[in-house]
Amino acid sequence: xxxxxxxxxxxxxxxxxxxxxxxxxxxxxxxxxxxxxxxxxxxxxxxxxxxxxxxxxxxxxxxxxxxxxxxxxxxxxxxxxxxxxxxxxxxxxxxxxxxxxxxxxxxxxxxxxxxxxxxxxxxxxxxxxxxxxxxxxxxxxxxxxxxxxxxxxxxxxxxxxxxxxxxxxxxxxxxxxxxxxxxxxxxxxxxxxxxxxxxxxxxxxxxxxxxxxxxxxxxxxxxxxxxxxxxxxxxxxxxxxxxxxxxxxxxxxxxxxxxxxxxxxxxxxxxxxxxxxxxxxxxxxxxxxxxxxxxxxxxxxxxxxxxxxxxxxxxxxxxxxxxxxxxxxxxxxxxxxxxxxxxxxxxxxxxxxxxxxxxxx
Length: 361
What we know:
single chain, 361 residues, alpha+beta, Nucleotidyltransferase, domain 5, Actin, Chain A, domain 4, 3 domains, 5-stranded mixed beta sheet, 13 helices
């Protein structure tokens, strides 16, 4: 070598006077790193990826074989040499290394046809009830997966922004965000959370409740994927004539004989299986209402409660919460994407939304 210094883009950009020029070359993204699904929003491009939060790796080397939909199809169907799992449980990281591998895979997929000179800044939604250690694990996973800077935002705040609630105005807004692993209820005003309550109960807990019910009543073992199909097809938080008429064939392994068997499960039975989980969600909404300041409570009488997240789509849940609280309740438009849309809006206008971000660990 002749001693000439090699050209380096980062060195060149460090001399540019305007930070916005630096950010211009970066494809900033927002991520809803959910227990059930990971959704990615790219600045100026919108939502560009929506995949199950599942990764499949080779057991001895941890080499990623698949992530997202393809990996989900492998759940419970892999040989010993391949491990397919969900690296997030109850809204937090259960396996740091696999979460990092999954994120890196998704980020590469997002940038597949678009070259970026600089690593992206990332706004990432995390549960409000997360510990500092768990928050740091999410940030480290994102950085190791390729993020230049990581900005955490509370999921209920992001959901409220994504649902179009007036979070910047001096009025009370209540959001109930029911994800795969957590249910979070927050009262928001003037870009800040007045009260927030989080429980580790969500769509996954509903699935496990159905698995447990079928095992207890029919001595039949079914998987969580089958339970999810049962929940979506005939699950309901409220009983009515329509639900009573519903039924579904459920296939599993008989625990007595050990052979496959099919049962017919009614809508009434699925409702019974979900009672306890649904009651937990209603209770956390009540707790939030009891801790809301009087002036903001009066706003909720007129404005009502907004629900987001996949769990909010359970049949009749909005009507049940309305019945139990006496307040109007509605499900947001595109409830599955409220968190990522809100985080995406923050990415688009980062300077305007600095107040809604959590402090970085």
